[in-house]
Amino acid sequence: MNLxxxxxxxxxxxxxxxxxxxxxxxxxxxxxxxxxxxFQTDVPAVSKALFLTLATRFIGAFFFGMLxxxxxxxxxxxxxxxSYSVIGALAAFSPNLGIFLALRALFGIAMGGEWxxxxxxxxxxxxxxxxxxxxxxxxxxYPAGYLLAAVVYGLLYGQKIGEFTFGWRAxxxxxxxxxxxxxxxxxxxxxxxAFVEGRAQTRPGLLETLRKHWxxxxxxxxxxxxxxxxxxxxxxxxxxxxxxxxxxxxxxVSWITIVANIGAIVGGLAFxxxxxxxxxxxxxxxxxxxxxxxxxxxxxxxxPFMLALGAFVMQVAxxxxxxxxxxxxxxxxxxxxxxxxxxxxxxxxxLAASYGGPYQAGIAEAPGGSYGYALALFAGVVAVCIIIVxxxxxxxxxxxxxxxxxxxxxxxxxx
Length: 415
Known about the structure:
Residues 10-397 form the Major facilitator superfamily (MFS) profile domain. With 415 residues, this protein is an all-alpha fold.
């Protein structure tokens, strides 16, 4: 993968932006039981914060994406990172569950913008031959953020510094850290060459593009709905499953989650690179097939070692499939709206899948249910659905990216 120094810095900035965005999101997954206890409610009620965060992300994808298509990827990415950092930290001061849920909804708006901005900036700045690997690297930011949250939770949660105990509120104050990335972006990351080249051109807007390509856009939203069920259905409640169903302490929950996210990073890198050789569709299909035999080990074994092994394999599969998505959606999108459309499609799929967390928690805590059953049900059904749906996707591997629709970067007319 031959990249210039500037291209490498662009990839690093996009990766770090998504990593720390995910860090802020996944902090909550370790703290559901503690927040429920303080606000005197149950886990399904607090898990609505997951739903609200996911449900509002499409607003941010649309809002920040439109700004980036007009004013540039770089300045709006900086604005977006500062926004999610500040809003994420404000959750530490929530006086009640209602305010906490409202702040997480606002955080979802800010979080929703980052993926589309970072991926478009990176994909427009690198040569086509490097896109598969970079796609895997970028998507690995998500499990890297989860891994970082697991490490911080394991090291800091419950620790005492004098009279101060590091509780859930202090964890959210760490959300201020991502704002530091803005200094790096401002000093070292150039604007997207494709945006600079096409800045003076007249380009169609998002609504016009959606009208012209509504079939593929609708298909992509359905695909991303299943993808978001796949990731969040295997990740968000897994720490709760380990704590409530198995009674593991924070240290054990932390290291099992760390192992899972090491698997996710391995999967994202491996399948992102593999997609350059066997194609985007085949790589996604293969990853989903691997998830199916991992389910019994991941959801129904009882020892920490076996659960960690199952979690490793499951996340190799889940994030292996996801590792292809940044490049796949960007290759399908017209350049004029590339900062808006991939992120909007991704987050619209997130909206469609956003109630998955509370629904899973309801299944798990219903009479006769369990967290293992709820996790296994989601993972198995969704893996099969993705295998079926992805076979209808267009393949645009190696597509030249410009900002002009009449050039080779336009969405194909038919699914």
